[in-house]
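Protein: DinB family protein
Species: Paenibacillus solisilvae
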Amino acid sequence: MNVLMEQYDFIKRTREALFSYCESIPHADYVHQLDSFGGASMCDLLIHVSYCYRNWIGRQGLQLTEFFEIPPQPEVGVVRTIFREIDTLVDQFIHTYAGKWDVPVIVDIPWQDEPEPRTPLYMFTHTITHEFHHKGQIVSISRHLGHLPPDTDLVP
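Structure follows.
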């Protein structure tokens, strides 16, 4: 059993619950930007999460540079497509670094002048915890807009 693949499968199921929920609310609320959340919308945060995966898993971990363009304020179905790309990157990343989770990789960190070493386990952990942080913000935004989100914690 590959524990990280199993863990990521839980994350994908949880993400799907969030996508289904986002489809159930009006698109205007899905893209409504709230000042109390840094001017972000639910849609903005999902796209932000995808960029984090693209950077840490795709660019830094796999040395990839080509990704498809993301349109502004995409429908949830388009965001699902973006995350299918992310799922492929994560699968490739997990297979690439199998047995090498603690071997540092030199990465560029945008807010620092010099590249630094980060382990693949760090990169994987950063992206998934980042996603869950923003998932919490997404359900909070929906509550601020008067919706009642379902439980989007780890879905069995």
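Remarks: The mean pLDDT is 94.
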